[in-house]
């Protein structure tokens, strides 16, 4: 009977035999009677529960023994019970539900194992405290039905967050559809989202399903939500409220079951104030807010991200690169990464192709990574508390041509603090900035890394 439903099965006469067979036949679902010779159903369930690896188990019970079966479900962790004689239709439905439950549990366990042992969750990688907080939030948000709003600079991995939310949800077997609202002209975005009927506008030669229909029972990522026209935002808000869509030119609405994840590289509150994002839509989307920090604020993640990317790039280009040299890691750590992880991937892709195998060396990186900042002397005014001629003569900083303004600013502030022996009030006077601004800059730079107290 079970084989006719496309399922493979093994049978056992009692609990001990079943435990032995499970070592070579890792069942997704177990059906067991309570009254058996040898190890009965109660003992079998206890052994499964104590092993910590108990798949969904369906308990069979005779008429009049339902109370015992219910207690078994609650106390021993069985999935459900069925009363004899069995009804094939009921058994098939329950088996399929239990199998789906088992698949979701395995996927969740795999993702949690990645998080515990690799500092990763799905395709996201990071061992920094900021990323660990994000991983924790995603594990809570994923299984829910709530909307998720993902913010962060371009290249930080907002789509990876959306894919991870999808993978952690009960919808993981459904479709994941991503649409970039900034890439579509205003005249086409509603057709792309909601679909259209034949003849609804010039060029609509046939009915077309929109993204909400295509993503049915799955997840829809609306990237760059702040670029969506305001009129379309109003229609989107209505869909989020009542889960019903009407195609362009259509006369009737139909129900959709889609989870929405929205993403933007703008600060959403500023987008609301600037009239680019409806305030009511922002609050509707902002049930779970995940902000991805830029790579420059979590440089401790450079190594695990780079190692993961190298593995991906080796497979893509059929290379055999094993690691990065210490000089390469030092150069990567000095860079400010305005393009974030996307920029890092591009740099490493070039390096992996050039190296081909073995270790990536400094020569495989673009020329801008090869040398430390060194030219352009900048005089620092002397202070009244200088105590040696050596200190008085050491009042310049050198930056290489090509140094970014942000890197030059950081170097100037830290060198001035060194010159004033960490007298922040004097340093702020020399630099022509307020003391509060100086403190904010030091906090931003993580000045303790450079031996300067904040």
Question: Which helices and strands appear, and what pairs or packs with what?
Answer:
Blueprint (H helix, E strand, L loop, with lengths): L14 H8 L7 E4 L7 H11 L5 E5 L4 H11 L3 E4 L4 H31 L1 E2 L2 E2 L3 H13 L6 E4 L6 H10 L8 E5 L5 H9 E2 L11 E2 L1 H4 L4 E5 L6 H13 L1 E2 L8 E2 L3 E6 L3 H6 L5 H7 L2 E4 L10 H16 L2 E5 L1 H9 L5 H16 L1 E4 L17 E2 L9 H5 L2 E2 L7 H15 L4 H8 L3 H11 L9
Parallel strand pairs: 1-2, 2-3, 6-13, 6-14, 7-10, 10-13, 15-16
Antiparallel strand pairs: 4-5, 8-9, 11-12, 17-18
Helix pairs in contact: 1-2, 12-14, 16-17, 17-18
Description:
This protein is α/β, with parallel strands linked by helices and 454 residues long. The chain has 4 domains: 106 residues, Rossmann fold (3-Layer(aba) Sandwich); 166 residues, Rossmann fold, CATH 3.40.50; 74 residues, Orthogonal Bundle (Helicase, Ruva Protein, domain 3); 73 residues, Homeodomain-like (Arc Repressor Mutant, subunit A, Orthogonal Bundle). Helices cover 45% and strands 14% of the residues. The chain contains 18 helices and 18 strands. The chain has a 5-stranded parallel β-sheet. The chain has a 3-stranded parallel β-sheet with strand order 1-2-3, sandwiched between helices. A two-stranded antiparallel ribbon has the order 4-5. Helix 1 packs parallel to helix 2 and helix 12 packs across helix 14. The relative contact order is 0.07. The C terminus is likely disordered.
| CATH class type of the largest domain | Alpha Beta
CATH architecture of the largest domain: 3-Layer(aba) Sandwich
The CATH topology of the largest domain: Rossmann fold
Largest sheet: 5 strands, parallel
Number of strands: 18
Helical amount among residues, as a percent range?
Answer: 40-55%
Residue runs with pLDDT of under 50 for 5 or more positions: 373-393, 447-454
Q: Strand content of the residues, in percent? A: 5-15%
**DSSP helical segment count:** 18
Task: Compute the number of structural domains.
Answer: 4
Strand arrangement, major sheet: 7-10-13-6-14
Radius of gyration over all CA atoms, rounded: 30 Å
Task: Please give the alpha-carbon distance between the first and last residues.
Answer: 72 Å
Looking at this structure, what is the CATH superfamily of the largest domain? P-loop containing nucleotide triphosphate hydrolases
**Mean pLDDT, nearest integer?**
82
Structural class: alpha/beta
């Amino acid at each position: 009977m079970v084989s006719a439903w496309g399922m493979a099965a093994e049978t056992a006469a009692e609990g001990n035999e079943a435990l032995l067979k499970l070592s070579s036949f890792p069942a997704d679902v177990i059906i067991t009677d309570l009254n058996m010779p040898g190890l009965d159903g109660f003992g079998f369930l206890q052994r499964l529960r104590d092993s910590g690896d108990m798949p969904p188990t369906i308990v069979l019970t005779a008429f009049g023994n339902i109370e015992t079966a219910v207690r078994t479900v609650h106390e021993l962790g069985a999935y459900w019970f069925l009363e004899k004689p069995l009804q094939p239709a009921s058994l098939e439905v329950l088996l399929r539900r239990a199998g789906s439950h088992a698949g979701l549990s395995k996927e969740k366990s795999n993702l949690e194992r990645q998080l515990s042992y690799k500092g990763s969750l799905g395709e996201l990688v990071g061992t920094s405290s900021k990323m660990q907080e994000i991983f924790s939030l995603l594990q809570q948000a994923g299984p829910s039905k709530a909307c998720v709003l993902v913010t962060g600079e371009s290249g930080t991995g907002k789509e990876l967050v959306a894919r991870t939310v999808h993978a952690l949800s009960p919808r993981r077997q459904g479709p994941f559809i991503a649409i970039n609202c900034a890439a579509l002209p205003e005249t086409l975005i509603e057709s792309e989202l909601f679909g259209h009927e034949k003849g609804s506008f010039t060029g609509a030669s046939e009915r077309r399903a929109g993204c909400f229909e295509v993503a049915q029972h799955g997840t829809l990522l609306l990237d760059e939500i702040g670029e969506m026209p305001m009129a379309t935002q109003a229609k989107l808000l209505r869909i989020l409220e009542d889960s019903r869509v009407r195609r362009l030119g259509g006369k009737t609405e139909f129900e959709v079951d889609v989870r929405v994840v929205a993403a933007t590289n703008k600060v959403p509150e500023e987008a609301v104030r600037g009239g680019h994002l409806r305030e009511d839509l922002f609050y509707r989307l902002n049930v779970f807010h995940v902000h991805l920090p830029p790579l420059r604020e979590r440089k401790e993640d450079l190594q695990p991200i780079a190692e993961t990317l190298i593995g991906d790039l080796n497979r893509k280009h059929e290379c055999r690169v094993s690691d990065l040299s210490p000089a390469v890691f030092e150069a990567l750590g000095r860079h400010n990464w305005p393009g974030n992880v996307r920029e890092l991937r591009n740099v490493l892709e070039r390096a992996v192709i050039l190296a081909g195998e073995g270790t990536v060396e400094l020569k495989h990186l673009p020329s801008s990574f090869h040398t430390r900042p060194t030219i352009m002397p900048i005089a620092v005014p002397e202070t009244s508390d200088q105590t040696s001629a050596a200190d008085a003569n050491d009042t310049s900083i050198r930056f290489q041509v090509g140094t970014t303004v942000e890197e030059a600013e950081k170097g100037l502030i830290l060198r001035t603090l060194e010159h004033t022996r960490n007298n922040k009030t004097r340093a702020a006077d020399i630099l022509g900035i307020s003391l509060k601004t100086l403190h904010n800059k030091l906090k931003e730079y993580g000045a303790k890394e450079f031996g300067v107290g904040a």
